[in-house]
C-alpha cells in the first residue's frame, strides 16, 4: 500500500527549477532511500514531504504530494502533517534541556499534561529508539552531554514520541561513527514494522543494507526508482549505473 | 575516478581469458589423444594442474574485489559471473584429463569401435567451449546464445554414440570394458558441452542480469 504518492511534482526556488516532474510512490512500512550527487534535489524532495520547504522564501511547488491519498498541500493542517511525518536531520539537534524534556516536548505541545502519561511516552519512545537501557538512569540530565550517536537516537526517540506514521531521515548517520551508524541502521529495520521510513543517504552501502526501494536523482530529475536489489544489481538507466559504480558524482 | 578498480577489473578479465585459453588447450590435447592416439597424458595432467591453479588465483582475486570494492550493478554481475564461470572451466579441465586417461585404454580398439560420433562430439564440445570464452571476451550475447543452441546437437550425438555402443556389446561381449570407456568418454564430452553452456549463461548474466539464453 502506498503511503506517499507524488505525481508530476515540480519545485522551484525562485527561477531555479529544483525538482522536475517527479513521480514516485513510497510504500507503507518500507524503507525508501533517495540517492544522488549533491544538489540533485533529494533533500529538497524529502523536505517537501512534511512541508519544511514552506519556510523557504520563493519556493513554489506544483503537482501532487499525497499522504494516504490526501493532498498535503491542500486543506491538511501543517501541524497535523508534521505530527504524522517526523524528521531526523543530519546533525543531531537535541534541545538544551533534559533528556526527559526533549522527548516530552512534542507530546506536551500536543496537549498531554499527565505526568504518568508523559512518563509512559518517554519510556516507550526511548525503548523504540533502542536507547532506553543507556539513558534510563539519567533522564533528568542534559541531552547535550550525550555522545553524537546517542544524541541522534534521542532525536529519533523525540520524533517517535508524537506517534508519527512516517519518519524522514536526512543523512541521519553521516556524522556518526560506524558503531552508532550500525545501531541506527538496526533501529530503522526494526522501526519499519510500525513506520514508513524515507531516507536521504550518500552512503550507498547503507542504502543497500537497509532500504527496500531506492530512487536515484540527478539534476532535479528522478531518474530511476526500483527495488534496492534491482537498482544495485541491474539498473536500467545508464546514468544510475554510472553514478552507483562511481564513474561520476 | 576509479582508475585502480578499473585496472583490477582488467586484470581479472585477462586472467579469465588466460584460464579459458588453458581449457581450450586441454581439450585440443585430449582430441589429439583420441584422434591420433598420441601419448600426451603428462601434458594433459599438467594442463589440469595449471587450470586448477588459475581457478584458485581468480577466485582469490574476485573475493579481494568483493571485499575491497563492494562492486554494484554491472561490476557486481561481472565479478559474480567470473566466480561461477571458473567453476565450470575447472570442471571442463577435470573432464578433459578424465577423457585423456580413458583414451589410453581405447587406443588399440579404434578399429573395432566406430568413433565417428565421439569425434563429432569432441569437435562440437570443443567449439562450444571456444565460443563461450569468445562470448565472454567480446561480451557478446549472440555468441553466447549460439553456444546454447549447439548443446542439443551434442546431446543427440551422445544418445547415438551410446546406442551404437550398446549394440556393439550385444554383438561382442568381450569388448564390454572398452565399450564402457567409450560411453564414459561420450558422457564426459556431453558434460563439457553442458559446462560450456553454463559459461555462456554466466556471460549472459554479466551482460543482462539474467542467465536466459533463449531467443
Could you explain how this protein is built, in words?
The complex is a heterodimer of chains A (249) and B (215). Chain A is 36% helix and 27% strand. Chain A is built from ten helices and ten strands. A six-stranded mixed beta sheet of chain A has the order 6-7-8-3-9-10, sandwiched between helices. A four-stranded antiparallel beta sheet of chain A has the order 2-1-4-5, with helices on one face. In chain A, helix 3 packs parallel to helix 6 (148-160) and helix 6 (148-160) runs parallel beside helix 7 (178-191). Chain A is globular, with a radius of gyration of 18 Å. The model of chain A has no long low-confidence stretch (mean pLDDT 95). Chain B is mostly helical and 215 residues long. Chain B is built from six helices and no strands. The relative contact order of chain B is 0.15. Classes of the chains: A alpha/beta (249), B mainly alpha (215). Chain B: Belongs to the PhoU family. Chain B: Keywords: Cytoplasm, Phosphate transport, Transport. Chain B: InterPro entries: PhoU (IPR028366), PhoU-like_sf (IPR038078), PhoU_dom (IPR026022).
